[in-house]
Amino acid sequence: MVKSAVTVTNLHYTYPNTTTEALAGVSLTIQEQDFVAIVGQTGSGKSTLVSLIDGLIQPDSGQLNIAGMTIDATAKASQLSKIHHHVGFVFQFPEQQLFAETVAEDIAFGPHNLGWSEEKIQVAIDRALMMVGLPLELKSRSPFALSGGQMRRVAIAGVLAMKPSILILDEPTAGLDTQATNELLTLIKKLNDNGTTIIMVTHQMEQVASYANRVIAMNKGTIIADTTPQQLFSHPDDLINLSLTLPVSVEIAQFLNNKGAKLTNTEPLSLEELADEIVKVMGRKR
Ligand SMILES: Nc1ncnc2c1ncn2[C@@H]1O[C@H](COP(=O)(O)OP(=O)(O)OP(=O)(O)O)[C@@H](O)[C@H]1O
């Protein structure tokens, strides 16, 4: 039976010293093992929503249900911090938050805060490094002596070490080259396949098309679409109204069909699906 990982009911939030609501009544349910992409223009409320789900800020009104806990405006700080036993948050440019003298100490920071035993922490460090594809020899190295891509993996390992059942990532591939981007997305997909619920804020529609099973579009602090990527990208006119763009693969497919290519799947989503369609057309012409 599919269980809900996060339920959010009529959440409202206004930042201190501001007057406009950053979140103006958001309700949604995220199921266990969903891969949810959150999209929307800058300032639409994406980061605010995920910060509330991670307990970094507290709702002014409304309710969050995560792993049997209920968080509302009256929740105590200790309740909010318990969320971190279940939810991991990879901030934008997470490598900027590395601080320890060695990679191992940096990864150990979160597990230490959760009160884990030294033995359990050492196992978690090795496991997390392996998950992000970094060699164990790096444990004693300074994180600041690593490449940008490696630093980001160390930062992500620090979150994975706490074994979150829900992983939030805010623009995880920002600033990475194509290879590092693909490797990171493959890792995130693997985590999802192995049971981790993924909530990923992104401006990259290709990533939505290729990885997410569900997409939530936000505007002015509200949810304006909650659907599948296939549905979202099959209504290009709606996308323009939402100030979102089509994935390049969908645009190319449309161009090809306009030129008479007759693709069977008129809305190929990922680049891989588009490639399959092109190969089929080429096969027909031989
Ligand atoms: N720390 C803050 N103090 C005051 N206002 C804030 C703060 N953070 C965000 N806001 C405001 O809250 C609203 C929602 O911002 P939020 O960062 O959630 O949007 P976003 O969709 O994540 O944007 P982006 O894509 O640029 O990260 C915006 O109007 C923003 O200006």
UniProtKB/TrEMBL annotation:
ATP-binding (A) component of a common energy-coupling factor (ECF) ABC-transporter complex. Keywords: ATP-binding, Cell membrane, Membrane, Nucleotide-binding, Translocase, Transport. PROSITE patterns: ABC_TRANSPORTER_1, ABC_TRANSPORTER_2. The lineage of its organism: Bacteria, Bacillati, Bacillota, Bacilli, Lactobacillales. PANTHER family: ENERGY-COUPLING FACTOR TRANSPORTER ATP-BINDING PROTEIN ECFA2, HEAVY METAL TRANSPORTER. It is a peripheral membrane protein. Belongs to the ABC transporter superfamily. Energy-coupling factor EcfA family. The keyword Translocase applies. Signal peptide: none annotated. Its EC number is 7.-.-.-. It is found in: Cell membrane. Residues 6-245 form the ABC transporter domain. InterPro entries: AAA+_ATPase (IPR003593), ABC_transporter-like_ATP-bd (IPR003439), ABC_transporter-like_CS (IPR017871), ABC_transpr_CbiO/EcfA_su (IPR015856), ECF_ABC_transporter_ATP-bd (IPR050095), EcfA2 (IPR030946), P-loop_NTPase (IPR027417). It comes from the Bacteria. SMART domains: AAA. Forms a stable energy-coupling factor (ECF) transporter complex composed of 2 membrane-embedded substrate-binding proteins (S component), 2 ATP-binding proteins (A component) and 2 transmembrane proteins (T component). GO terms for cellular component: ATP-binding cassette (ABC) transporter complex. Gene3D superfamilies: P-loop containing nucleotide triphosphate hydrolases (3.40.50.300). This is Energy-coupling factor transporter ATP-binding protein EcfA2. GO terms for molecular function: ATP binding; ATP hydrolysis activity; ATPase-coupled transmembrane transporter activity. The keyword Cell membrane applies. It is an enzyme of class 7 (translocase).
